[in-house]
Q: What sequence folds into this?
């Protein structure tokens, strides 16, 4: 097998089990040296240590970092440990996450905030810790973990969906800011059976949704010729792409009548013929100005 990531240095957060474990093993299988981050927890990081042992047993290189993604100082220590050992950081996989599912009416604000803290601020903290290094070496590949719950919504997951869509916006902007320094930023939206999905899906479906069937989707997002600003969906050995698009829409010159006209012309403005995937938020301004008369 061609090792597409030979000697690259990767960090995977929340990698003591589930998707994170599968991601770390897949990166190592392609030749990357992998730092496995996880919470210490009651087990004192036994899961992360076991993943590192698996990688070493297969002839790879691995380190363990026990730290909380919601603590910026822990993420900085994680980056410092990686640099001290291997001298660079090429890849960051922001995987750490939690669920606190309930309908919005019954959801405590503390649970809403906690999910945002882990998924969004966790990714922010980890990315901030590696960003300067990636800029200096003019190379970086970052993957955010989004979800169909964010892209399309899911009953009982207002907090999770909000966090996962926030990561898409974070990715879009970082990809623009990192482009001149060869930092490419993408999203992976997995469907996998992990500790986070136990009790949600039937047993037969869970068998088909092994995390190992998602992790190959990481590889094209982190190789030398990776795209940027891609949302790649993966599950059960199937892979798709999602896009945030903009229709051509309509122009209404009479502001006083615009509200009423919009009510009757929604079908027209949602027509998808000629829709685009904007290269940046500025595309909305450009399109709207281009439709002005004269």
A:
């Amino acid at each position: 097998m061609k090792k597409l990531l030979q000697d690259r240095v990767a960090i995977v957060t929340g990698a003591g089990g589930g998707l994170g474990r599968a991601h770390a093993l897949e990166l190592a299988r392609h030749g990357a040296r992998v730092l496995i981050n996880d919470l210490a927890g009651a087990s004192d990081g036994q899961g992360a240590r076991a993943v590192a042992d698996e990688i070493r047993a297969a002839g790879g290189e691995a380190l363990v970092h026990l730290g909380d993604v919601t603590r910026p100082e822990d993420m900085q220590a994680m980056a410092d440990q990686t640099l001290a050992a291997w001298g660079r950081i090429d890849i960051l996989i922001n995987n750490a996450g939690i669920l606190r599912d309930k309908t919005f009416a019954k959801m405590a604000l503390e649970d809403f905030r906690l999910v945002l803290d882990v998924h969004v601020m966790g990714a922010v903290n980890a990315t901030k810790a590696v960003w300067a290094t990636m800029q200096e070496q003019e190379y970086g590949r970052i993957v955010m973990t989004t979800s169909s719950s964010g892209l399309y919504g899911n009953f009982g997951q207002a907090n999770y969906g909000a966090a996962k869509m926030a990561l898409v916006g974070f990715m879009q902007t970082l990809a623009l800011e990192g482009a001149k320094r060869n930092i490419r930023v993408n999203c992976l939206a997995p469907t996998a059976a992990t500790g986070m999905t136990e009790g949600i899906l039937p047993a037969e479906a869970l068998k088909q949704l092994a995390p190992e069937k998602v992790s190959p989707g990481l590889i094209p997002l982190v190789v030398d010729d990776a795209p940027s600003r891609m949302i790649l969906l993966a599950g059960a050995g199937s892979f798709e792409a999602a896009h945030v698009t903009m229709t051509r829409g309509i122009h209404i010159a009479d502001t006083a009548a615009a509200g009423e006209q919009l009510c009757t012309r929604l079908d027209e403005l949602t027509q998808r013929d000629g829709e685009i995937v904007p290269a940046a938020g500025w595309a909305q301004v450009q399109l709207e100005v281009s439709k002005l008369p004269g």
